[in-house]
Amino acid sequence: MFEGAGREAGDPFQFYVSSLRNAISQSPISFEVVTFLDVAEVTPDGESIFDGLIDRGNALFKAKQSEVIDPKECSVKADDSTVQEYSVFYIAFKVPIPVEQGCIVTIQLPEDFRLSAGDLTRIQGWGIFGKRTDLNVGIDESSRILKIVD
Questions:
Q1: What is the model's pTM?
Q2: CA dihedral over 87, 88, 91, 92, signed as positive or negative
């Protein structure tokens, strides 16, 4: 705990927390910050009981960048490799971070591919997505990006 004369109202205050794992997505996460006047007592198991609520408010945490999957950890297989023919593609990759509900996975296709939402009939996932299931996918045709949400 901090010792000393305290802080004046309106003074900026910062603190440091180490070894805290970032959130699993880039969605903003709100957490509550509560300030008290003093520590009233410390229980035998070391838990602090606080006294004199001063203020409470929310702070917003937002991760700045996503994790990139190393292309060496990816593989692509096509049922039909004939030039300009439609095919079923299997894209496999190892995820570098824990993946849970709420994560977003984006797949950017190379420049040689033309991505048209009307041409895609079905996008399924399994492995990190559980059993084989249809995926909720957003498509950015101009950037050739598939964005898998939840």
A1: 0.53
A2: negative
